[in-house]
Amino acid sequence: ETPEDIGGAKKKPLGLAYVINENPPWYLVILLAFQQYLTMFGGTVSLPFILSEAMCFSTSPLVISEVMSTVFFVSGLATFLQTTIGSRLPIVQGGSFSFV
Question: Mean pLDDT throughout 7-28?
């Protein structure tokens, strides 16, 4: 029997919505990208605030903003390197809370 179901639609293994060579529609991609952005934004922004007390700059908003911009820049740079010359997985490299 062919992998096509009745009506000409292809049968997906294990109930998957998309197989490896398919792309979701553009509006779904934008929605999922925004969801990923909101998920990563919280972790990236909170890291400088958590570290500010231990690094003795909790009373200086300018230093917190500089650390925050550095975290965003390095996260973007590491993500770019990961997706171009690294393992090419669509992941975001960010700060880790395992050292906090």
Answer: 80
